[in-house]
Design brief:
This protein is an alpha/beta fold. It folds into three domains: 141 residues, Vaccinia Virus protein VP39 (Rossmann fold, 3-Layer(aba) Sandwich); 85 residues, no CATH class; 73 residues, no CATH class. The protein has a five-stranded parallel sheet with strand order 3-2-1-4-5. Strands 8-9-10-11 form a four-stranded mixed sheet, with helices on one face. Strands 6-7 form a two-stranded antiparallel sheet. The longest helix is centred in the C-terminal third of the chain and has 17 residues. The protein is elongated and about 75 Å long.
Length: 353
Amino acid sequence: MEEPELYANSNALPKHDISIILSEFMPLMKWSNDDAILDVGAGPGDVTRHLLWPSCAKFSHIVGIDRSQKMVNYAREHFQNERLTFEKMDIVDAVQPTNVFPHGFTKIFSFFCFHWIHDQRKAMSNLYELLRPGGICLLVFIAQSPIFDMYERLVKNPRWAPYMNVIVDIKNGSYDLHEFIPIYQNRKDAATDFRATVENCGFHVLSCKAPEFTYVFDDVDCVPDYLKAVNPFVSRMTEEEQNDYIIDCLKETPLVDGKVKMEDPELYANSNLKIAQKHGTSIVLSELMPLMKWSNDDAILDVGAGPGDVTRCLLWPSCAKFDHIVGIDSSQKMVPLLTYTKNSQKIQDGHRT
């Protein structure tokens, strides 16, 4: 969460959802050349510049704020211009934010920031103070997600618990894992609860709903980077530990609906378990394959080849030289028996155990 470039390059999932929401709500708003716009939790600034800006029919200027100086610096370097500026501000801890922005804003947006905020009453009170009379506010955040259930499971792993369960308040026994779990994660009706908070701060709520979103990654190889970019704990680990931790995250994250059936080749090849294995396999191959001696006569066997995707897409490119590769699996349905050669691919009937 503190790596701006990684986050900017790995946030396809939130960008997808933001695009859908902007296309729904932005045409309903009235726009003026005098509109002053605030983006709360702007992060590295890419969403502010590439999604929010083009969706605004008219405006005078946009300000993006974020609590991370590292994010603000990145946003300033890559996206700031005469109509778009970035400032460091924590919307919860800010005292009299109108001292910083005395003219306020006609429109306030926030995308995938508020699920990190536990004192939402304070945050909404500050937004209310910054919003000009008659202004409009659009907030998008995660109320509930299996990602946070995954954190709850991983913290029970003795290897990861020290990184995820750091005591931040000895007197009250507070653990920072729970600082990264949305307050609505286990609520029955998140939309109703949030509406009540917002209305108590003085807002008139036009719409408040918690729809379910499903996202399909175009490339499974980008999933580890995404999980690393949004994970608040990896920065506490060594690089080697980060790789192992992300593999465990992938194993615990239900990226495919339903259970992974080991006899379903297509489902298994695209499942969260398979993604974890591919990520781990790539690391191991990059480390060990250069240490081996290779020959054009090498005959290679891949035991437990499954649907054959790892054999073809990871093992094959890692072999400097070889004559042929044979993949075997105990499941007839997975792969009968795949034989790969440099110039051809032949599938033979039968299977071996």
